């Protein structure tokens, strides 16, 4: 099975593209969804995070206070690394388990931090979703209600747009949200089906 790693900066439209692939009956695995599951109440990963960062990152009911944790890790690079060293190995382990249960010509694995985690070897091809930084900021501001400074700090913590595009096997331009997006996905869908047939 061909494994296509879908990645891109915050606000580039990865979820939208993943949904179009899912509508074509292609399995989509999502690292963010896995990460959310891993830090649910009662999960071992949440205990590890609490031991590393203290009870300030918990809500009164014992669930994760995402806002507090986000503030902590985006203002301190060491704290960010500490969180990643706990979560990233667990995320890839869970994705591998999900992959082993799939039976399809190809699958999409949405990994926002594919380059940042140095895990490009986890996939066979890299599909980058791209749009200008100004567009990213506008979209995230509307979606997540974050300040421009906070969004910019998230973008600065990710690899550059130039780097991503240089490393892409396939590129989708998502500068405008219109019918062309579905067309681009359909072309890639046909390409991935043919590539996967060549591998059999």
List keywords for this structure.
200 residues, alpha/beta, Rossmann fold, five-stranded parallel β-sheet
Descriptive notes:
The protein is an alpha/beta fold and 200 residues long. The chain has a domain at 2-27 and 102-199: 3-Layer(aba) Sandwich (Rossmann fold). The chain is 54% helix and 12% strand. The protein has a five-stranded parallel sheet with strand order 2-3-1-4-5, sandwiched between helices. The protein is globular, with a radius of gyration of 18 Å. The mean pLDDT is 91.
Please, what is the CATH homologous superfamily of the domain at 2-27 and 102-199?
A: P-loop containing nucleotide triphosphate hydrolases
Uncertain segments are: none
Structural class: alpha/beta
Number of helices: 9
Radius of gyration over all CA atoms, rounded: 18 Å
User: What is the distance, rounded to the nearest whole angstrom, between the alpha carbons of the first and last residues?
Assistant: 8 Å
Strand content: 5-15%
How many beta-strand runs? 5
Order of strands, main sheet, comes to 2-3-1-4-5
Query: Within the CATH hierarchy, at the fold level, what is the topology of the domain at 2-27 and 102-199?
Result: Rossmann fold
CATH class of the domain at 2-27 and 102-199: Alpha Beta
- The arrangement of helices and strands along the chain is EHEHHHHEEHHHEH
Just name the CATH architecture of the domain at 2-27 and 102-199.
Answer: 3-Layer(aba) Sandwich
What oligomerization state is this entry in?
A: single chain
Biggest sheet details: 5 strands, parallel
Mean of pLDDT: 91
Mass-distribution shape: globular
- What percentage of residues falls in helices of 4 or more residues? 40-55%
